[in-house]
Amino acid sequence: MAIKEHSSLQDLAAKFELHPNQISNLKREFLENAELAFGPQAEKEDPESGTAPLYSKIDQLQVENDFLKKALGRCALPKEDKRW
After folding, report:
1. What is the mean pLDDT of residues 6-20?
2. What domain of life is recorded for the organism (predicted)?
3. What is the DSSP letter of 74?
4. pTM of the predicted protein model
5. How far does Cα 59 stand from its chain's mean position?
6. Is the separation of the CB atoms in 13 and 19 below 8 Å?
């Protein structure tokens, strides 16, 4: 509302219970950084992009775990003779 300037700062301050200086500061800050909020979509981070390396690591660890289980099974010591 402050950016569109349809109301005075005093009216907005009374409506939203803020000091007029706060509204001016928020408006100025927004206008200075508006390109960050409405910039190209390519710059925004894809939430799925961070999971691909994690799934890759999980797959690698599962393969290693399966390999070690098989190797341990081949190297297992024979069971003790309980006759004694």
Report:
1. 90
2. Bacteria
3. H
4. 0.45
5. 22
6. yes
